[in-house]
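In response to reviewer comment 3 from the previous cycle, which asked for concrete evidence that the modeling workflow produces usable outputs, we include below a single protein chain processed end to end. The sequence was submitted unchanged, and the resulting structure tokens are shown without manual editing.
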Amino acid sequence: MPYPSSHMYLTLHWEDSREIDEGGQIGIRFDTVPDIPTQAMVDACKPAVQTFWQSAGAAIPSSYRLRYLRLAGIGTDGKYLPGSFSFDATYGAGISTANAAVVFPMQVASVATLLTELPRGQASRGRVYLPPIAASLDAQGRWSAAQCNARADEVAKMLTSLNAVIKEPAGLPAIASVFSKGTTKNAGGLRSFVTGVKVGTRPDVQRRRAKGQAEIYGTTYAVAH
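The workflow returned the following structure tokens.
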């Protein structure tokens, strides 16, 4: 099944300095008319992502190094737009933080939920899996609401900044969005603009997903576009 439209796809890539063969990435889709990405466009994303990564509020552990960004134009088939290429913006040896080190393995993540104008259903929300928060868990095995709220605020600020620098051909900003492929009920797929971010207090692992364990969320922080 296809996506509802062509769009830009930005991925953030990092590695764990404790074991450089271990790495991770997240992807964010931006609604835009069909367009070919440029080196200048992905270079313009670097400051916003670096500011997020090194912020005290995001609390990325010091062992996680941000290595590069990649921007690609994606067609409705989920593949690169014909005749286009992806462009990378690198951070050299990597961007580390002054935050505390933690001992979580790479399989542990902090989940940021991307909210849209739709209250439920297809393309109503998305998820990005970030490094764990650089803080110990409480007696219930959770991060505090204050720690999760601080990270949600920083993710929202980053998306707001990225909305302004990823451009359509006419110079208009693209908008961070949740894209859903077509289904038997809606063959064309759906797209909704991201309007807010919230972060769950429970660390994410494969076991949690399998058992559908309940989440506790903090405050929702708005994304401007």
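Strands lie at 7-16, 19-31, 64-74, 87-95, 110-116, 125-130, 175-180, 190-199, 221-222. We consider this sufficient to address the reviewer's concern, and the full set will be provided in the supplementary archive.
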